[in-house]
Design a protein that fits this description.
Blueprint lengths: L1 H22 L3 H29 L5 H28 L1 H28 L13 H12 L1 H5 L8 H29 L14 H5 L2 H14 L1
Length: 221
């Protein structure tokens, strides 16, 4: 069962990485993918909020409307930011891709180390998260530094290591935030579109936070 789930997760990850490469290679694929991903992620997020309100017997339509508008604005700005960077600034595009890769490797590292070493739970928010998994997230993300250091000539290695660690932490916190919302909504996944991953929001939860944080870190450090 676990191996089957892991296999599906790896295959889906490979598909998503290929999609990511195509998005940054062809502008029309980027536009179409951003529109579809943003729309589905917004629907899944708002679906979680509705379920949380239902579980808590809340009927405040004003607050639900706030969540609907806030999430729509955030995801819209997020998509426009990616599009603008892709079409206007090559240097920022490198920072953008690096931030996404850190989020992806952090997720893979957490999964691999968590399955292999198991051990003590990291938090009650997500029972599948372990301390060994968190360590694996850092290790896997730091592997990107020697692999991609040639693209960051103007950034000292120690600075790139610090940025990578902070982006990885942000990715893990973003994952925990969505896990908290799923726990409150009493659902396992935000959707079932991606085999082994759940919904779109399950896959990009960390990325939604790592991109803006990563760009800020590259600017100030």
């Amino acid at each position: 069962m676990i191996l089957n789930e892991l296999k599906k997760r790896i295959l889906t990850s490979i598909f998503l990485i290929i999609l990511l490469i195509l998005m940054f290679s062809y502008l029309y694929i980027l536009i179409i993918a951003l529109i579809i991903i943003s729309l589905i992620a917004w629907i899944e997020f708002y679906g979680l909020i509705v379920k949380i309100f239902k579980e808590m017997n809340l009927k405040n339509t004003i607050i639900k409307f706030f969540f609907k508008i806030f999430s729509l604005i955030y995801i819209s700005i997020f998509s426009l930011l990616i599009f603008n960077i892709k079409t206007q600034n090559i240097e920022l595009e490198i920072f953008l891709i690096f931030s996404i890769l850190v989020a992806i490797t952090s997720d893979i590292g957490g999964l691999v180390f968590g399955k292999i070493f198991k051990g003590r739970k990291l938090t009650s928010i997500s029972p599948n998260k372990t301390i060994s998994g968190a360590i694996g997230s850092f290790i896997f993300s730091l592997l990107l530094v020697p692999l991609l250091i040639k693209h960051f000539d103007a950034i000292p290695v120690i600075n790139l290591v610090i940025i990578t660690m902070l982006i990885s932490i942000t990715s893990q916190l973003g994952d925990l935030l969505i896990s908290l919302l799923k726990r409150k909504a009493k659902v396992k996944d935000t959707g079932d579109l991606l085999p082994g991953h759940g919904g779109i929001l399950d896959r990009i939860d960390g990325i939604l936070f790592t991109i803006p944080v990563g760009l800020i870190l590259f600017t100030i450090i």
